[in-house]
Amino acid sequence: MSETSFDVAAFTYAHRGLWGGDIPENSLRAFEAAAREGVGCELDVRVTADRKLVVFHDATLERMCGRAERVDALSFLDLRKLHLPDGSIIPTLEEALEAMAGLPTLVEMKIDRIPGLQDRNRTGIPALIGAMRFSNAPAAVMSFDEPTIWHFEREIVDRPIGMLIEPDEPGKEGAAVEKALRADQGAASYFAPHYSVLAPIAEQFGHIPRVTWTIRSLPDLAAARAHGAAPIFEGFSPALAKSFANTI
Fold it and tell me: Residue 13: beta bridge partners?
C-alpha cells in the first residue's frame, strides 16, 4: 500500500472540518482544529472560472460570503479577495491538505448543472486529478456524479475513489442500492452512503469499505459503526466519535 492509499473505513472524519462557534466550515481553522484533535476530515472542492480548485461547499457565495455570484463564475484571484465569516480567505485544496498535517482527508468533487443548461460543469476534474498526482497527502476522492467517478477510476491510482450515495426519495425506494450496484462494476473502491440507506448497502456490499454521512447524534454514530462504516460527523466531541471507532 502506498503512502497515499489508506483504509477509509478505519478513521473518523469531521464534516467540512471541525467547525463551530467562530470557526467557519471548510476553513483553514476548521482543518487545523481537526488535525489538533487527531481526526480526519471531509471537505468540498469547486472549480473557479479559470479552472482552479477552491474548498467551498455551496454553488454560490451567498451563505458564506454574502455575495450572489456562483463560485464557478469568478476567477481564483477574485475569490481570494473575499472572506469567510471569520475574515479568513477561501482556501485552496493544497492549503487544506497542508493544514490536515498528514491526517486522512475525503475530498468531494462538487459537480453542478450549468445554469440554463442540462449539462454539468465537470471542468474541475482535470485539476483534481492533477492535484492528486502531485500530492503526498493521504487523501481520497469522491463525488455524487457517476461519470466523474468513472473518470477518476481511469486517471487516479493508489488512492481510494468513493461513490457518494443519496438517500432514497419517496417513490424511488431502492435507488441507493441500484447506484451502489453500478459503482460496484469497478469504478469505486469505497461507498459513501447517506446514513438512512447505510443498512441495505452494508448488507449487500459488505466487501466494499464504507463511510457514511452526516452523523449528528450518538444513535446514528452507533448505527454507523454497527454497519462497519466510518462516520463523517459534526456537532459533537471528536474524542467521543473516535471512542466509538475503537469500541463499536
Answer: 40, 232
C-alpha cell at 42: 471531509
- Number of Cβ atoms within 10 Å of the Cβ of 38: 13
Q: Which residue has the cell 482543518?
A: 31
Domains in the chain and their CATH numbers?
8-44+103-247 (3.20.20.190)
Q: Collapsing DSSP states into helix, strand and coil, what is residue 30?
A: helix
What does the pLDDT look like over 191-215, one tens digit per residue?
A: 999 999 999 999 999 999 999 999 9
Q: Which helix (H) or strand (E) holds 120?
A: none
Q: Which residue has the cell 476530515?
A: 41
Query: Exposed, middle or buried: residue 232 (CB in 10 Å: 0-12, 13-18, 19+)?
Result: buried
Cα 28 from Cα 149, distance rounded (Å) = 27
pLDDT-based confidence at 113, cuts 50/70/90?
confident
Q: Tell me if 202 sits within 8 A of 229, measured CB to CB.
A: yes
CA-wise closest residue to 95 among 48, 29, 39: 29
